[in-house]
Amino acid sequence: MKKEIIAMVLAxxxxxxxxxxxxxxxxxxVSFGGRYRIIDFALSxxxxxxxxxxxxxxxxxxxxxxxxxxNGSAWGLNSHDxxxxxxxxxSSIEGENWFKGTAHAVYQNxxxxxxxxxxxxxxxxxxHIYKMDYQKMLDFHKEKNAALTVGVIPVPLEEASxxxxxxxxxxGRIIEFEEKPEHPKNNLASMGIYIFSWPRLKQYLVDNxxxxxxxxxxxHHVIPAYLRNSENVFAYAFxxxxxxxxxxxxxxxxxxEFIDPNHDLNIRDDNWRVYTKNxxxxxxxxxxxxxxxxxxVTDGCYVSGEVEHSILSYNVKVGKGSKIKxxxxxxxxxxxxxxxxxxxxxxxNAVIHDGAQLIGKDxxxxxxxxxxxxxxxxDVE
Length: 381
Known about the structure:
The protein has helices spanning 40-48, 63-69, 102-107, 110-114, 134-143, 198-210, 218-228, 248-258; strands spanning 5-10, 31-32, 36-37, 53-57, 83-87, 120-125, 128-130, 148-154, 164-168, 174-179, 188-197, 233-237, 242-244, 285-286, 291-293, 296-297, 302-303, 306-308, 311-312, 317-318, 323-329, 334-335, 340-346, 351-352, 357-359, 366-368, 373-374. The chain has 381 residues and is of the alpha/beta class.
């Protein structure tokens, strides 16, 4: 079943910097924008780019992500010659059942990739917010006769030390890779998006495994090996909206930006839709005491309080007299009466009892985790 290109979405990250928001679910499964999950953007990009064979590589807390992705039908990937396939770590060697890095995750799934005999493999992170036509990147890869093409995005030079930086020549060829350099030479940051010519990458992974060398991570091992061996490695510059939502602050910020109807992400573009698994929910209901300003309120919400510049995901309840401002409320959360929520993220199915407060301070976002509860009557010992 020959395919020109297939995608491998790396979606097994724990996302520890998101704290209690990823205590029970993997980062790519975290809710975003009222009705989406973070992984929806990578999967939608694949579907819109015409890449119909997608391996979703999972590891940490995979249950919710498995249920969400399924066979890829929500993204139109479940055609007769396509589909999304859940790939989880396995091994016949005791104690070796976890992926040791991004490249090791691909190595463990060589059989899956070879089933399609692809010319190229697209490797993606499942935890970024962006829209991208991967076919344009593939055309660039072919034009340059590249062994590897790395998606890069310009970042402010003062922030470049937080990223892997690609130093290039005038043709766009990568001549040096620096991992989080103290004094970066430029601002081209790796997006964690790679197109590999598959036969060459497979040779690197198999040969190094046979020689018991480390070839576990693309950033730390594979890219430096390609550069040492003078492979054709090029940078593909992306200049549209892209957000790494790996911290509480960046997740909150991305959701607040998402409220803007003129957002650069252009979520309402019918020519490049972001798909998701739809949840059956009743229509939203706003009572006569509700007051909603500059906010997103999705299906199943019941609002009897005030909501300003916030996102209410599906099936959220807001009681009378409550005030929600500059906050992101995940699905199924219940907010009682006379509650104040400001500069906060509330996790799925969390409960805030009557009269409680959740307020961020000094640019620090307040967080309530999945299924967590605050306020209410306390048990007396």
